[in-house]
Amino acid sequence: MLQAELDLLVLAFQQGDQAALTRLYQHFQRDLLRFAQWQLQAPFNTQAVAADLVQNVWLKVLKRIQRLEDPAVFTSWLYRAVRWEVADWHKQASQRLTDMLAEPELLVDQNPPVDPDEWSALLAGFSTDDQQLLRLFYQHELAQQDIALILQIPAGTVKSRLYRLRQQLAAQYQHALPATARFGDVGSDSPDDQTRGKDHE
After folding, report:
1. Tally of CB atoms within 10 A around 53
2. Which of the following CATH numbers is that of domain 116-201: 1.20.144, 1.20.1070, 1.10.10, 1.10.1760?
3. pLDDT band at 90 (very low <50, low <70, confident <90, very high)
């Protein structure tokens, strides 16, 4: 979806257009679920938990959409909201885990972790922060400016880290590149590559 079309949908949503909300939901929902599920830690990284958290985010978006002054930052605003929602859930999960350890019977019938996707194997050698940046850029196809807003780091830091990580990815996993061919040649882009959003859709 082109950025201009996305901006118009956000503006219409702010004016109460339910059809615009539906289109925004359909456009973002699948990627937001993947983003939330990846950030959840085993054994809680299930589709059900991710779906609940993303649903909470949409409910908050409904209440707070009028506070958004610039529709162009809607994407980063949405992803950052998911990031915060997962972080809050982890804080609560720590207490729940403490309670379960105190009462072993509560551990019965817990959902097992989901199988890792191809990215888990491909990025296994990278730190959590580096994995998050690479997933946002390649798997979620977000622009570097949006990633900077989501991760709350300078855009220049995103650019330099991404350039370094792409070189490492190409060098360390060259034998696995055919499995990720849909993302292009990860080692060929220059550090000035600024955009990789969803304009191609």
Report:
1. 21
2. 1.10.10
3. confident
